[in-house]
Amino acid sequence: MEPPPGTAEKSELRHVEKDVLIPKMMREKARELCSDKVQAFTKCCQESGFLMVVKCQQENAALKECLTTYYTDPAFFEECKIEYLKQREEFRATGIPAKQRQQKLPTSM
Q: Which segments does the entry list as coiled coil (predicted)?
């Protein structure tokens, strides 16, 4: 007996989802979670100009360490995977991408 249509698809990930889309979501969330280090590195780069390679090594190392912590965390991957699956399920149900769903629709024209 075959399972009902759509049940096997719900939790299975395609290659592009597993290797591209979910890591992209992880990068975006990690940048938000490491925003203090991102801002420190950005500020250092803006103040240093061409010498940023030498002057901002400490900020760059702190930023890399923070981001790598999230990238290598299996629990963080699972969290992003669950969020992605929810977004995918909503898209399949409504046909409206998440970005468009989050935008406010005009009430009058």
A: none
